[in-house]
């Protein structure tokens, strides 16, 4: 059995006339295995809003997340980070020598 997906960061496109980011965050947070959702607006265009969505949980079912977002009229543009395993491991910044 694969290790549980604990955190995923998505680049998402949401229609301007679609649901609010509050509604999107609540709908996604209600899915099984999800403990929290953070949505930040990155850019607003004429017809779409570009969002960064961070999702954390004990066992995230990415397929369910993608399906819920599609039901809300959103499109996943890219998966920018995925963390799996027994705990969330944060990425460390490493300075390069000059």
From TrEMBL:
<dbReference type="Pfam" id="PF02680">
    <property type="entry name" value="DUF211"/>
</dbReference>
<dbReference type="InterPro" id="IPR003831">
    <property type="entry name" value="DUF211"/>
</dbReference>
<dbReference type="InterPro" id="IPR023129">
    <property type="entry name" value="MTH889-like_dom_sf"/>
</dbReference>
<protein>
    <recommendedName>
        <fullName>DUF211 domain-containing protein</fullName>
    </recommendedName>
</protein>
């Amino acid at each position: 059995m694969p290790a549980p997906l604990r955190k995923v960061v998505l680049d998402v496109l949401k229609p301007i006339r679609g649901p609010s980011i509050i509604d999107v965050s609540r709908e996604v947070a209600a899915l099984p295995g999800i403990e929290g959702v953070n949505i930040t607006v990155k850019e607003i265009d004429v017809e779409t809003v570009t969002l960064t969505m961070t999702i954390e949980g004990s066992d995230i079912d990415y397929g369910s997340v993608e399906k819920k977002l599609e039901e809300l009229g959103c499109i996943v543009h890219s998966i920018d980070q995925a963390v799996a395993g027994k705990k969330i491991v944060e990425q460390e910044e490493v300075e390069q020598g000059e």
